Amino acid sequence: ELKVEQNPLFLSMQEGKNYTIYCNYSTTSDRLYWYRQDPGKSLESLFVLLSNGAVKQEGRLMASLDTKARLSTLHITAAVHDLSATYFCAVGDSNYQLIWGAGTKLIIKP
Amino acid sequence: DSGVTQTPKHLITATGQRVTLRCSPRSGDLSVYWYQQSLDQGLQFLIQYYNGEERAKGNILERFSAQQFPDLHSELNLSSLELGDSALYFCASSPRAGPTEAFFGQGTRLTVV
Fold it and tell me: Is B2 on the interface with A (CB under 8 A)?
């Protein structure tokens, strides 16, 4: 059974700093998705990573996938307040389902 | 705007009652997923339909049921409601059975009093 673990679950950081959120999963998969959720709002798709070594960047966010290590990272560069949100990763399993991480609540302080 | 429409946006009801949440998927999407998100919690997968057929079941209570109609819209029925059922209920859709990128609606906030 595929399990997905995100860490940290909570992150408070200063504007301008860099940080990384990690998404580990327990069995083989080559499909990983990152989503953003603002408080009380819907989930917005950020990145789709479909192969080993995939790297996607959008603004101050960069996501990568290492299928051999079963690890994806979401890197935040020079954080700004607008990036405060909860970030979820989701991994495709062999039963064609998306298995979700618990989410990382990110607070960026001015 | 993801193209997924959920109604109603908010719903307040009493314990023991029954409610129906509605979801219209993006044009062309055949899969519909239902999720429950309690306050400050992660996403709990409830159920998936693909082209009118139940595709996968998650942690869905027996008091809850869903269906997908020929026009591909879906309804989630919640009955004998309890206080603990208060949550955000999301519908998501995708083109295929999965796993694939899913697009989420704005959610229905259900409050049981």
Answer: yes
Task: Sort strands B5-7 and A19-25 into parallel, antiparallel or unpaired.
Answer: unpaired
Residues forming a β-bridge with B77 = B20, B65
Other Cβ atoms less than 10 A from the Cβ of B24: the count is: 19
Q: In what order do the strands lie in the sheet with A4-7?
A: A4-7, A19-25, A71-76, A61-66, A55-58
Q: Mutate one of B37, B54, B104, B109 to test the A interface: name it (highest A CB count within 10 A).
A: B104
At residue A36, the 3 state secondary structure works out as: strand
Question: pLDDT by residue (tens digit) across B23-53?
Answer: 999 999 999 999 999 876 788 999 999 999 9
DSSP class of A42 = -
Q: Between A and B, how many residue pairs show a Cβ–Cβ distance under 8 A?
A: 55
| Burial tier of A48 (Cβ tally within 10 Å: 0-12, 13-18, 19+) | middle
